[in-house]
Amino acid sequence: MTIAPxxxxxxxxxxxxxxxxxxxxxxxxxxxxxxxxIVEDNSVAGPDVRTQTLRAYENVRTILESQxxxxxxxxxxxxxLTSRAHVADFYAAREEYxxxxxxxxxxxxxxxxxVQGLVREDLLVEIDATACRLxx
Length: 136
Fold this sequence. Notes:
Layout: E1 6-8, E2 23-26, E3 29-36, H1 49-66, E4 74-81, H2 87-101, E5 110-114, E6 125-132
């Protein structure tokens, strides 16, 4: 069986910065493009890592829900920070967010990378996700 991928830019998140889609789906697999701490008009949610991290996770959640999935369907996160100095604030924001969305403390794997910069200078964190939506 051949599964043709689908590509979308769901409402509730900012428009892609360039020629790409926020999400693609191939069968049960959902791939969410890296999400930053931006609101729907593509302005930054706040100047700090905590605010941007919480918003990036909300963008991931919104995109997953557009595909009939939830954060509990995530099988892997990849997170990018622009400085090692942001790690503690990122961890704190993630723990705050995950406490609400993963009450059983069953967290997906996460790779954390420190990068020289993101596409815009005002962005401090980016998070992408891979999810697997199985029939419930």
